[in-house]
Design goal:
Layout (H helix, E strand, L loop, with lengths): L10 H14 L7 H14 L5 E6 L6 H8 L2 H4 L3 E6 L3 H10 L4 E5 L1 H8 L7 E6 L5 E6 H7 L21 H9 L5 E4 L5 H12 L21 E4 L5 H6 L5 E5 L2 H8 L2 E6 H4 L6 E6 H6 L1 H19 L6 H8 L9 H8 L2 E5 L2 E4 L16 H13 L9 H11 L2 H13 L32 H5 L11 E3 L2 E3 L2
Parallel strand pairs: 1-2, 1-3, 6-7
Antiparallel strand pairs: 3-10, 4-10, 5-8, 5-9, 11-12, 13-14
Helix pairs in contact: 1-2, 3-14, 6-18, 14-19, 15-16, 17-18
Length: about 475
């Protein structure tokens, strides 16, 4: 209270005054009790910017933000948060960079790509990972009918999973013989979905195409041509016949099942078991200018992540009902529950256990591992988005510039100190997961040796290679 000696601090009066200013600013909308909670926490915690706008795309893995809002975790931390759906990932990215959004549910590759200047240049950070897994690859009914009879079967006659992209080879060849491209959709050039779809195709012996400088299409020397479609538009694009399949997050694979227009053939945890998916992204200068606000956001989101995974998923049905609201995902609760409640439906009548399909808190899901960032960077290099060879040190330095476990740990350790989350839920690590397996092609990954990792792929750029419009050149 330095500088205010002799003044009486009327806390209730201060709360009333700030509540009035919040209402005048149009940032309210909650009950008065919620407003008092926000303001009281803000005053006690010295939050510099209590009124925030965060962006998201209509996907079930935005759940930590919705739950932090609806269960009062943001309010507990002194934050009055507006959650605003965005039309697509480019609009969302531009909103964060331009300051219209204070942070966002973001593709893991977006802050990395922006920092290295791929597509756009901006200093973004990812102080928290939002979840593990959560995507799938769906094929059109037409293509499914072309491959299903040749798939390995279980004793009950259902297809055996995971299904390899190798089964697509004769289909792609038939399209080519008819002079037609085989087109598939993904959500953004630096999305997890792009890299997972490419990984699956390449593991099955199909080339998904390369990028070159200034080229955002990524179809050079492609057997299968990939294009961008916003997630909620995937089912309609598939139904129209523009694409023959896609990789997307939920609930848009389940939407294809319920509409009976497509069949999911593999989930992303079957491509890379327990892969990191979305991050919470924001501008680096925002975190520097508003450190207490940033810490408060992270604490609120971590609380929401814990709530989502608590008691073996006991809260998932409530989460489904919240996400089904039109201001969040806006899909039928039944469709969202088909993947969000510990199961995954591949076809009508073929619903299988999938306890780990969405992981938000368990298995250190929130910790932003450097090795996760390095994996995305290796895939950018593998497919030509990074046009030249980079040293192992470059990969490590870039990862550390963007992924910020220091900020995550500060928030998580405060929650441990306050008895909100258990100490064992916070990893003791140097930021690397160590050698990982669980990939569909059987290749192991060590984030500390990115160039060695890249050399293992039969399909993908090798040391010394580059891409032009004419194709791949170099040793």
């Amino acid at each position: 209270m330095s500088g205010f000696k002799g003044l009486k601090f009327d806390r209730r009066g201060m709360i009333a005054a700030v509540l009035a200013s919040v209402a005048l600013a149009g940032c309210g909308g909650g009950a008065e009790a919620d407003g008092e909670q926000v303001v009281a926490a803000s005053i006690d915690g010295a939050v510099e910017k209590p009124n925030l706008k965060l962006g998201f795309i209509k996907l079930t893995d935005m759940a930590p933000l919705a739950i932090a809002k609806e269960k009062g975790f943001f309010a507990e931390e002194g934050l009055n948060v507006t959650l605003e759906p965005q039309a697509n990932w480019k609009v969302l990215l531009d909103g964060v960079i331009g300051g219209q959004l204070d942070g966002a549910h973001m593709l893991a590759g977006q802050p990395l790509a922006a920092t290295i200047g791929y597509g756009t240049k901006a200093d973004l950070i990812a102080p928290l990972s939002l979840d593990l897994n959560g995507n799938a690859i769906t094929l059109s009914n037409k293509v499914w009918d072309m491959i299903k009879d040749d798939l390995p079967k279980m004793e009950d006659g259902r297809p055996q999973h995971p299904i390899s992209a190798e089964h697509l080879k004769p289909v792609v060849a038939e399209f080519e013989a008819q002079g037609k491209p085989f087109n598939m959709g993904m959500v953004f050039p630096v999305s997890t979905h792009n890299y997972e779809l490419r990984y699956w195709l390449a593991a099955g012996g199909l080339k998904p195409g390369y990028y070159s400088d200034g080229d955002v299409q990524g179809v050079i020397d492609a057997d299968v041509k990939l294009s961008v479609t916003p997630p909620p538009q995937m089912p309609a694009t598939l139904e129209a016949g523009t694409i023959e399949g896609y990789c997307v997050g939920e609930p848009w694979n389940q939407a294809a099942v319920f509409k009976k227009i497509g069949v999911p053939v593999i989930t992303d945890d079957q491509i890379w078991n327990d892969n990191p998916e979305k991050v919470f992204g924001l501008r680096e200068d925002f975190a520097e200018k508003y450190p207490a606000t940033t810490a408060a956001m992270l604490r609120a989101i971590i609380k929401a992540q814990q709530w989502l995974d608590a008691d073996g998923g006991a809260n998932r049905q409530e989460a489904v009902e919240i996400l089904a609201r039109p201001n969040y995902v806006g899909a039928d609760a039944e469709v969202i529950a088909a993947s969000m409640s510990g199961v995954f439906t591949f076809e009508p009548g073929d619903t299988r256990e999938a306890e780990g399909f969405n992981i938000f808190f368990d298995k250190f899901a929130g910790y932003p591992y450097y090795s996760d960032a390095v994996w995305y960077l290796t895939q950018m290099r593998r497919w030509g988005q990074i046009s030249e060879d980079k040293s192992d040190e470059w990969y490590a330095d870039t990862a550390k510039a963007v992924y910020r476990p220091d900020l995550y740990l500060a928030a998580a350790n405060k929650l441990v100190e306050d008895g909100v989350i258990p100490a064992e839920s916070v990893p003791e690590t140097d930021g690397y997961r160590g050698e990982q397996d669980g990939f569909i092609d059987g290749i192991t990954y060590d984030g500390s040796k990115p160039n060695e990792y890249l050399s293992k792929f039969p399909i993908g750029l090798k040391q010394g290679q580059s891409v032009t419009a004419a194709g791949v050149s170099g040793s």
